Structures are given as C-alpha cells and as structure tokens.
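ok, trying the design again with the full structure, not the truncated one.
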C-alpha cells in the first residue's frame, strides 16, 4: 500500500493594513473609524480632518491643552505616516504630506509639558502652513476634485486681521464721503489693485518675494492658506473696486461697510460661540452676529446722512445685512467672501430700490 502525503505550501506573507485607526475628534475623544475597505481618498480625508481638528485644538487655552497636546500630535503623526506608507497617492501629494508628517513629529518631540503661548502659536502656524500645502495640492489635482471640495481651510483667530479689515472699510467710506469723488476713488482702488496683483505675481515666480511678503511684511494679517491662493486682500480690493465703479455712492458705501464690519464679527463670534452649524464650518451664531452688527452700522450711517426716511433706512439696512450674511455663509473656501459680500449686498440694495419704486 502506497501512502501519498500532500504538503500544503506556505502562503507568502503579505503586510496587512490595520483594521482600524483611532481618530481624535474636536473634543479630544477617540473615535474608532474602520478604514480597511475604504478608498484611499476617503481615508486621506478622514486623516486630514483629524489634522484640521488638532490645529484648531491648538487655539484653545494653553493651560487646559497642555496635558493632551503631545498625545494628539503623536496620534495625528501616526495616522499621516500610515497614509504615506500605503504608497497609493500620487507623488505630488506625497511630498507635502511627508512635510506635514515631519512637522507633526518635530512638534510632538519638541513640545514640553508646559508650553508657552508663543511656542503654541508658532506650532499652530507651522502646522497650518504644512496642512494648507496638502489641501492646495489636492485641490489642484482634477482626479481628486471631490476630495478637495470636502477639505476645510483653516480660519484661525486673528485680532490684527479683523482690525485691519474694519479699518480698511472705515477709511474707504470716510474718504469717499468727505475727501474724494468718484474718479479719484476708482483711480486709487485701481492703483492699489495693481500693487496687489504685482505682489501676487512676484511671489509666484520668486520664492524670496513669497518669504518676504508672508514671513516678514504681512505675516500678522495673513492666513496659512493664502500662501497657495490669491490672498484675501486682493479679493477685498476687487470687491471694493467693483461696487465703487458700478454703483451709486451710497450703495457702494453700504456694501463696503457690511464687508468691513460683518465679516470679522461673524468670524469672532462663530469661532468663540458657534455651536449650531448651518453650512460647512459656518454657524448660526456667527450669522446672527453678522446680521446684527451690519444692521446697526448701516442704519447708523444712513441716519447720520439723513438721505432716507426712517422706515426706508431700517428696511435698507436689514436687506443689506441679510444679503451680506447669506453671501458670507455660502461662499465657502473656493469663492472668496471678500468679493461676494459687497457684490451681493449691492445687488440686493438695487433690487430693493427697484421693488420699492
């Protein structure tokens, strides 16, 4: 009798991907997100959302954050490295992602148990720049267009930026009211616009100009994402130029006032008290703050000018405030609200006047 023995060949070892990954939400609580069968683009979105939450987390009270900063940085670094190790992303996305991973690792290793406010701010800016580089790269890739629309840009608290925003609007409105006429206003705005466009072109072709503009001159009023897109100041100037050139003086002044006071107030209140989201990262509290402050400022301005009856003043102020709030809420990251707010307000005022007449 012959006995045949069949030997089972060993299965070659294959590196398996972890079945789950711990993602930290905005409150610092771990959420078990199973990613084994997820497409890499979806996994990248979740990991970048985690990094986004960690960077926003750094804006809180330093004394409260201190015990968990290192833990959250380490967790984010681990997840970014995991996406890089999968080696399924295009090379042009891998490069900024590796930079983000390096900065997360450096931050995790260098941060102390009791970091200073200055150290946390520097950390926030460094990580913000690296994160926005990844977001800008993803959005520039047509094959990752859907992922890019689901990523959020950082909007850190910046008191100096808000003051700059308000002062520009107030200066423009007062100058147009007391010192300059239509031709001079348009001419000045055209010159300022040309300067902004020239600086934007310079920084795209010369890295030295980029570093000088964003790291030395305008660093105090810029956001991280503006390194990779047209800066908000350019859109702000274009919005003012559009309404001044195409609208009557009062309509243009109202549009600029709404832009100048409503937008920063919505940001301040929304970041501090926003609990009820209405669209993406925009909150109901921020929208109400926008409407309230804009209504007060515009109605006060029109009352001082004594151009309209009280009832018309109130109606016009309300229309402008609501129109500006809608534009600010739904503009998103792809369409800058510094352009959409004044243009929308001007259109709403024109429509209201046409309806009343």
């Amino acid at each position: 009798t012959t006995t045949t023995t069949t030997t089972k060949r060993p299965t070659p070892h294959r590196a398996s991907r972890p079945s789950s990954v711990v993602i930290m939400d905005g409150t610092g609580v771990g959420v078990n997100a199973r990613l084994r069968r997820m497409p890499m683009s979806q996994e990248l979105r979740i990991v970048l959302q985690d990094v986004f939450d960690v960077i926003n987390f750094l804006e809180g009270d330093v004394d409260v954050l201190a015990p968990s900063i290192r833990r959250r940085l380490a967790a984010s670094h681990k997840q970014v490295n995991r996406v890089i190790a999968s080696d399924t992303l295009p090379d042009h996305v891998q490069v900024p992602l590796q930079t983000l991973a390096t900065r997360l690792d450096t931050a995790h290793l260098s941060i102390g148990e009791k970091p200073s406010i200055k150290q946390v701010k520097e950390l926030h800016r460094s990580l913000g720049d690296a994160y926005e580089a990844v977001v800008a790269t993803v959005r520039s890739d047509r094959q990752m267009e859907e992922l890019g629309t689901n990523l959020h840009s950082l909007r850190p608290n910046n008191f100096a930026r808000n003051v700059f925003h308000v002062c520009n609007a107030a200066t423009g409105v007062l100058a147009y009211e007391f010192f300059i006429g239509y031709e001079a206003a348009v001419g000045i705005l055209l010159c300022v616009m040309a300067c902004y466009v020239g600086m934007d072109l310079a920084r795209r072709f010369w890295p030295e100009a980029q570093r000088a503009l964003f790291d030395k001159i305008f660093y105090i009023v810029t956001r991280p994402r503006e390194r990779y897109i047209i800066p908000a100041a350019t859109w702000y100037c274009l919005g003012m130029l559009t309404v001044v050139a195409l609208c009557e003086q009062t309509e243009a002044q109202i549009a600029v006032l709404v832009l100048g006071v409503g937008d920063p107030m919505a940001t301040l209140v929304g970041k501090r008290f926003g609990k009820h989201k209405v669209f993406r990262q925009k909150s109901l509290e921020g929208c109400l703050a926008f409407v309230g402050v804009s209504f007060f400022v515009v109605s006060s301005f029109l009352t001082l000018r004594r151009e309209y009856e009280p009832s018309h003043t109130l109606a016009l102020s309300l229309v402008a405030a609501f129109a500006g709030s809608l534009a600010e809420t739904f503009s998103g990251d792809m369409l800058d609200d510094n352009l959409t707010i004044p243009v929308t307000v001007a259109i709403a005022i024109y429509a209201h006047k046409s309806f009343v007449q």
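Keeping the full-length input from now on. The mean pLDDT is 83.
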